[in-house]
ABC transporter ATP-binding protein (Nocardiopsis coralli), 255 residues
Amino acid sequence: MSDTTVHPQARTQSPPVVVARGLVKTFETGGSQVHALAGVDVDFHRGAFTAIMGPSGSGKSTLMHCLAGLDAPTSGTVHLGRTPITGLRDRDLTLLRRDRIGFIFQSFNLLPMLTAEQNILLPSQIARRSVDRERFEHIVEVVGLRDRLGHLPAKLSGGQQQRVAVARALLNAPEVVYADEPTGNLDSRSGAEVLRFLRDSARDLQQTIVMVTHDPVAASYADRVVFLRDGSIVDEVTEPTAELVSARLLKLEEA
Ligand SMILES: Nc1ncnc2c1ncn2[C@@H]1O[C@H](COP(=O)(O)OP(=O)(O)OP(=O)(O)O)[C@@H](O)[C@H]1O
């Protein structure tokens, strides 16, 4: 174990970066109600890589949207650090998402006319933030994009494009990165590259990462997996293996 490696147990005991309490989200659809979140309490700690799993419709996306301030819960609270993000005005939420949260989506979301480097730097430019060149160099090195920085996205493989998106999300050292099915569009080799990088970022850069995934192999890269069913957290596994995650998921789907 290297000096910079923190044992997973130590990471889960560090102070929480994100704290959600009593999260309820009810959708009204044509006269009936859907309880997408039925009272979720969950914490995410600094430097921890957490996967959120559960059967289809269990509330994973809704939970991530409420945690990230992309949607407002019907009731309950979310704190990012000391900031209660539930209750912030739209403009403050926009700034908070821009300055303190990183996002990685299944569909990369790169701008096609910008090079890899320009895509990585774009959010900092929009926010008029000075770039920590040392961190940029480090991230580029770790994601293995050094010789691809001048390429347009169309000239990169899917895995390389997602690594650009990951580097972009991490450049500003956001307090938390939310990844929504980040390997959903990748073949298994490229997916593994991206997942290794996310895992290493949590370990080496103390980056807090929360990932929604359907894939037990992807979840096995996390330090911890929380399982949702019918809008509630019903199970949790630390130091998961793909086999263990598959078995728990199967149990939830059968129940
Ligand atoms: N905008 C909406 N309006 C009405 N119902 C919604 C809305 N968004 C989600 N739901 C419902 O809330 C529940 C949870 O949905 P959510 O998308 O969070 O689940 P999920 O676990 O992410 O599903 P999947 O794995 O299929 O993506 C589902 O029953 C869904 O139909």
